[in-house]
Amino acid sequence: MKKICVLGLGYIGLPTASLVATKGYSVLGVDVQKSTVDTINQGQIHIHEPDLDILVKSAVQSGHLKASLTPDEADIFIVAVPTPFFEEGFKPDLTYVESAVRSIAPVLKSGDLLILESTSPVGTTEKMRDWVKEERSDLNLDEIYFAHCPERVLPGQILKELILNDRIIGGINTASSLKAQEFYASFVNGSIHLTDARTAELAKLTENAFRDVNIAFANELSYICEKLDVDVWQLIALASKHPRVKILNPGPGVGGHCIAVDPWFIVDSAPEESRLIRAAREINDSRPKHIAAKIIAAAKKEKQSSVACLGLAFKANVDDLRSSPAVEIVQILAASGLTILAVEPHIKSLPKALAKYGNIKLMDLPSALQGSSIISLLVDHSQFRAVDRSLLAKKQIFDTRGIWQ
To answer: How far apart are CA 91 and CA 286, in angstroms?
Structure first.
C-alpha cells in the first residue's frame, strides 16, 4: 500500500486526504494546529463541506487516514497549504510552502514524488526543488519528482469536483509529470492534461484572473450606472440578451482564497504587462469601501443607529469567511459607530476580526429584519433568497447581489 503525506488539512488538504484514503492509500495528514489534528483523529471535521464529515469518519475508522503535527516517510507528498500575499505591495508570501517543503526534506528518499497543489506564483515548483537541495545535499534530485497540480474545485462541491474535474499537471520534467499523472488517474475521472510546471502554475492564476476581470467589468458598470442614473440590473439583463454577450452581475467585491489573491501573483511576476489584471483587482477591491460609504450616508440621513447585514461568507451557502468583502463592509460600518445586526447562518460565533467590535451582534434572520429599517444584503445565501418580501416593506434595502430585484 502506497503512503501519502498531505501537508495542510484545510479546505483542500482534508478533502483530498480523506478521498485518497478511500482509494487504497495509507494517508498521513499533517497540520500545524493541534486542535485540527485532534479533531480529525477523532473522525470529526473542523470545516464545513457537504458530506466531508461522513468521508473523514469513514477514512479514520478504516485506519487509512491519520493526522499528525509532523510529517513521516511516504511515497507521495502533497503540499496544500495557504499561499497568501503580503499586504504591503501585494507580494506573494511563500512562507507556508517553504516551511512545508523543508519539514518533509528529512524523510525524503529516492523515487518520492512532491506535488504542489497550492495556487502559487510561477516558479514555485522549481523553488521546492531548490529548498530540498538546500536541506538534503545527499539526495540525487534526479531521483526525486516535483510537479504542480493546482486544485480547481468549488466550495460546496469539493468532493464531487475532486473526482469529476479535469486536472492540469505540470512537472519540472517529463518524468515528474508522468509520475504525478499515474497518481491522479487513480481517483480522478476527469481528463488529465500534462504540461510543464510553469505553465501549470500560470494556468491556475489565469483561470482566476479571467473571472476577476469579468467581475470587475460588472462592478465598473455599476459605478457607471450610479453616475448616469441607470438601473444596472436591468442594463445587464438587456445587454445579455445579445447571443454573444453574457455579463456577470455586480457585487460587494471579491473574496475567498483564490480570485481575490491569485491575480496579484501575475501582477507581481509581470507588473508592466498586467495592466488590465491590476485594474480589475483595484476595481473589485474598491467595492467594500464604496458600499459601506453608501450605507453609512443612508443611516445618517435617516438618523438610524443600526443596520442589518445579511451574510458574512465570501460566497453563497458556505461558511468560508476568508478575504470576504462582506466582513470588510461590516468592519467599516462597525468602525463608524453603527450597531450591526449580522446574520450568517453558517457560523455559530463571530470571527476574531469582528468579535473585537462591541457593536456587532450575531443573530437570526427574523430578529435582524425586525430590528433595523436599513437592510444590507451582502451574500446571496439560499435562506436570504427565500425571504418573504413583505418583511422588507418600508425598509431601505442595499441589495448588493441583486437577488431581490
So the answer is: 19
